[in-house]
């Protein structure tokens, strides 16, 4: 009986082991299926994350390039401000020069006007002197002619009297 008991215990143990194996194996298969599903899901999530990471890296590179360009432009600001300052100084200098030139132009214009007035005055004086000279010349010629005629007449009379006295 001890042999039957051992066989019974062994048979019962075997049944229990077989049942345990079937249920445990089924649980393992279900767990394996669940793990495979989870692995597939995690693989998809990993692929999505890698794609998102690549997209974020591209965005980061673009932002980095934009930042670099912005930094470069920022570095140019002092140069541009200096250029603006230089141009403002040059403009102020040119405005001063323009003001001086306008002042000189006004003075030259006044001087030119004075000279034109003097020229006009001199032309008038020339005309008056010409008229006066002509008048004096005519008078002198008239007087000279009258004196010449008187002298010539007197001389002729003297010659005439002398000639009559000799005859």
Overview of this protein structure:
By secondary structure, the chain is an all-alpha fold. Helix content is 99%, strand content 0%. The chain contains one helix and no strands. It has one helix at residues 2-166.
Taking all Cα atoms into account, the compactness measure Rg is: 68 Å
| Mean pLDDT across all amino acids | 86
Overall 3D form = rod-shaped
The secondary-structure element order is: H
N-to-C CA distance: 232 Å
Output the number of helix runs: 1
Number of strands: 0
Largest sheet geometry: none
Structural class of the helices, strands and pairings?
mainly alpha
> Which parts are unreliable, with pLDDT below 50 for 5 consecutive residues or more?
none
β-strand percent reads: under 5%
Name a few traits of the molecule.
167 residues
Short note summarizing the structure:
The chain is mainly alpha-helical. The protein has one helix at 2-166. The model has no long low-confidence stretch (mean pLDDT 86).
Q: What's the structural blueprint in terms of helices and strands?
A:
Elements: H1 2-166
């Amino acid at each position: 009986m001890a042999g039957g008991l051992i066989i019974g215990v062994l048979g019962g143990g075997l049944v229990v082991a077989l049942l345990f194996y079937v249920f445990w194996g089924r649980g393992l298969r279900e767990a394996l299926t669940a793990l495979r599903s989870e692995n597939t899901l995690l693989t998809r999530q990993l692929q999505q994350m890698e794609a998102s990471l690549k997209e974020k890296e591209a965005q980061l590179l673009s932002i980095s390039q934009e930042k670099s360009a912005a930094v470069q432009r920022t570095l140019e600001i002092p140069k541009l401000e200096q250029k603006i300052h230089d141009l403002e100084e040059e403009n102020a200098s040119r405005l001063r020069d323009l003001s001086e030139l306008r002042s000189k132009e006004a003075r030259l214009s006044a001087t030119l006007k004075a000279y034109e007035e003097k020229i006009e005055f001199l032309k008038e004086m020339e005309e008056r002197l010409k008229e006066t000279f002509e008048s004096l010349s005519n008078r002198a010629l008239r007087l000279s002619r009258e004196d010449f005629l008187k002298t010539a007449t007197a001389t002729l009379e003297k010659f005439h009297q002398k000639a009559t006295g000799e005859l």
